[in-house]
Amino acid sequence: MAAPNLDVVGIGNAIVDVLAQADDSFITAEKINKGTMSLIDEARARSLYERMNASMEASGGSAANTIAGIASLGGKAAYIGKVADDALGKVFAHDLRATGVHYATKPLSGGPATARCLILVTPDAQRTMSTFLGASAEFQPGDIDENLIADAQVTYLEGYLFDRPQAKDAFRQAGEIAHKAGRKVSLTLSDPFCVDRHRDDFRSLIKGHVDILFANEAEICSLYQTKDFDEAAAAVWAEADIGVLTRSEKGATVITAKEQISISASPVAKVIDTTGAGDLFAAGFLYGFTHGQNLEKSAKLGALCAAEIISHFGARPETKLKDLAAKAGLV
């Protein structure tokens, strides 16, 4: 079997983020569930955008952020995700390629516009997201690049994309291609909202196709329908080889059938914006995992990357992660 040329290929919603500061009263007035992601249509996206404070735009999307993080660490990464043949789609593609990521998914022509996520950041650094999926929701099995998946150590699947039947089919197809090539498959649950909508399908996907599962405390408890984190954590290894469970300021737990490892969160002078924290934790962990690091060191690298991302606005690194990791002795 040929050695893989890529570390990780990510599959997810190709989205441009629009970030603005907001207070709790604005979120309440807009009837948005604070701290989660909700799906909106294009008309709602336009009306909410008009009432937001001054904003900044940046290419995003959960798995795309992870893949950009892996590239910042010096890894070889690729991305598969759908944009429209429009201005925002071109911005997304340019920004991702500029990080060193291979991105060649054919854009959608004549359909919905490129997706955008309106992110409201409150003074407590919580992010509340309203997402118009646009062209990204048109993703289907035909968009899967079999050669890229077979050429990557790990295929990383974004739970946010797991909505329409054709996307679910694409995930299963990607998992089968990866395993046939002797590679690993990883999934992030993305949001309790996603878990509540697709719990049974997620459980089925995890049992049949997923080797490494990423989730935060709320997501994993929702998946196994319990309020007890330890109970949920214990259930993970029965369905996935490795569970990587993040717990915000309490750090993270990595669990397998043989061991449970807990690491502390990396210190941050001031938390500015938690957007992308889980995405960049996954980036650090997967970089370590694909470069022969043990689970503890991989998790510590994940925590370091998450700390960098929450120290500023936006979900892409402002500091080269490779340099941070080298300074910390993690690469």
Q: What's the CATH superfamily, by name? A: Ribokinase
Give the end-to-end Cα distance, rounded to a whole number of Å. 27 Å
Tally of separate helices: 12
Roughly what fraction of the amino acids lie in strands? 15-25%
Helix content: 25-40%
Q: What structural class should be given to the helix and strand makeup?
A: alpha/beta
What does this structure look like?
- The protein is of the alpha/beta class.
- The protein has one domain (6-12, 62-107, 137-327): Ribokinase (UDP-N-acetylmuramoyl-L-alanine:D-glutamate ligase, 3-Layer(aba) Sandwich).
- The protein has helices at 24-29, 42-51, 62-72, 87-98, 146-150, 165-180, 192-209, 217-223, 229-236, 277-290, 295-309, 321-327; strands at residues 6-11, 15-21, 37-39, 55-60, 77-80, 102-103, 115-121, 127-132, 152-158, 184-188, 212-216, 242-246, 252-255, 260-263.
- Strands 6-5-1-9-10-11-12-13-14 form a 9-stranded mixed β-sheet, with helices on both faces.
- Helix 3 crosses helix 10, helix 7 crosses helix 8 and helix 8 (217-223) packs across helix 9.
- The protein is globular and about 50 Å long.
- The model has no long low-confidence stretch (mean pLDDT 94).
Question: Characteristics of this structure?
Answer:
331 residues, 12 helices, 39% helix, UDP-N-acetylmuramoyl-L-alanine:D-glutamate ligase, 5-stranded mixed β-sheet, 9-stranded mixed β-sheet
Kindly summarize this structure in a few lines.
The protein is α/β, with parallel strands linked by helices and 331 residues long.
Helices and strands in order:
Layout lengths: L5 E6 L3 E7 L2 H6 L7 E3 L2 H10 L3 E6 L1 H11 L4 E4 L6 H12 L3 E2 L11 E7 L5 E6 L13 H5 L1 E7 L6 H16 L3 E5 L3 H18 L2 E5 H7 L5 H8 L5 E5 L5 E4 L4 E4 L13 H14 L4 H15 L11 H7 L4
Parallel strand pairs: 1-5, 1-9, 2-7, 3-8, 5-6, 9-10, 10-11, 11-12
Antiparallel strand pairs: 2-4, 7-8, 12-13, 13-14
